[in-house]
Specification:
378 residues, 7-stranded antiparallel beta sheet, 6 helices
Length: 378
């Protein structure tokens, strides 16, 4: 016969087993939730890595577009004469990629570049034409642990030279020409034939003025122009470059050089790598030098006097802030010259207006930046 106390013990065991089973189920479901959260966290972490890799691709490509240093197929600076800067390659057909391993990135810049599959993070970038001059579409694809992220942005180019000078020589203030055979030439009818443009009356004239065939020299000069004289020096600079001096000077593509003393060798070397040059202290040359070509001209902003004691050939634009221009050797400038104040010239400089050279500066120089409201996430 079963006693009442024994019956009560059996019920306790049954209830305990039931509660243990419920607790076990709770642990199983809780563990499943933890595992799901962990898996979700890993996926989110990898997705964030892929997104950051794509953003890194956009930033890296923009930095490369604003770098004038020649690079090799590994995207690193190269001393090989046959190599060219990133922006001068066929970027519309190029696909560059970078792979992260051990905290370091290794990159490849080639038409068929592909990132490695065994890396923690990778990105690849590709450019596309937009149909708008000076605007390119940049696509970046980031990957990390199987997660992918694709971003797109438009890059716009701000030209190194925004407005083309109409005259071979532009002087905002008065201009005087001393000893020597200073010459100003503009013989292309398509660009107007204006030789000298001055904001003040001319106290003297250049030794040679040559305009389009059949045009008298005096008819090619526009002197005492009130509109030009009304511009402040900063206003003249802004009218040509679309920004003030401080902003133009700090562009990534502008190279600054000290020419307060003779800088022949340093300037010649810099001009082979950089098209936009800010010359601090002036321009002083003691030996013959050639700067730029008709296909790859240079733009010199000369912040100081000009002293040319060695024959110089310059393809491009010379913008000078100081009035003094002394040439004892005979320089030839193919492009244009602009003086933001007065001009006191002596020597045998010959200035030739070349529209194609100025157009090359307008179309192929400058800095790239992201265009507002062009960012897209796929």
């Amino acid at each position: 016969m079963t006693t009442p106390s024994a019956q009560r013990g059996a019920s306790t065991i049954a209830v305990t087993l039931l509660l243990s089973f419920v607790a076990l189920l709770s642990v199983v479901f809780a563990n499943r939730s933890v595992l799901l959260d962990a898996k979700t966290s890993v996926n989110q972490y990898r997705a964030a890595q892929a997104r950051e890799a794509a953003e890194a691709g956009l930033a890296w490509a923009l930095a490369q577009m604003n770098n004038s240093t020649p690079i090799g197929d590994d995207c690193r600076p190269s001393g090989n004469a046959s190599d060219s800067p990133f922006r001068e390659r066929s970027v519309a057909a190029m696909r560059a990629s970078c792979t992260a391993r051990g905290g370091e990135w290794s990159c490849s810049c080639g038409a068929s570049s592909q990132p490695s599959d065994d890396a923690s993070q990778t990105f690849s970038i590709q450019f596309a034409e937009t149909g708008t001059a000076g605007v390119m579409q940049l696509n970046a694809r980031g990957a990390a642990g199987g997660s992918l992220s694709q971003l797109q942005v438009h890059l716009g180019r701000l030209p190194g030279l925004d407005s083309l000078p109409a005259a071979a020589l532009t002087v905002r203030g008065p201009a005087t020409f001393g000893t020597g055979t200073f010459g100003v030439h503009h013989t292309d009818p398509a660009s107007g034939g204006l030789t000298l443009h001055s904001g003040a009356p001319l106290a003297s004239w250049p030794s040679y003025l040559r305009s389009t065939p059949g045009t008298p020299a005096s008819a090619s000069v526009l002197a005492d122009d009130a509109a030009l004289a009304a511009l402040a020096p900063q206003g003249l600079f802004t009218s040509l470059f679309r920004m003030d001096k401080s902003h133009w000077r700090t562009q990534p593509m502008v190279h600054e050089l000290d020419c307060s003393n003779a800088c022949d060798g340093a300037l010649a070397e810099a001009a082979t790598r950089h098209q936009l040059l800010w010359l601090r202290g002036g321009l002083r040359l003691d030996t013959p030098v050639s700067l730029g070509t008709s296909q790859r001209p240079v733009l010199l902003v000369v912040d100081g006097p000009i002293e040319l004691n060695g024959s110089a050939v310059i393809h491009g634009l010379v913008y000078a802030t100081h009035a003094s221009w002394v040439d004892t050797a005979g320089a030839a400038i193919h492009g244009a010259v602009v003086l933001e104040d007065a001009l006191q010239a002596s020597g045998n400089t010959q200035i030739h207006h070349h529209l194609a050279v100025l157009q090359a500066l307008h179309q192929h120089t400058g800095s790239y930046a992201r265009l507002a409201n062009s960012w897209r996430d796929f």
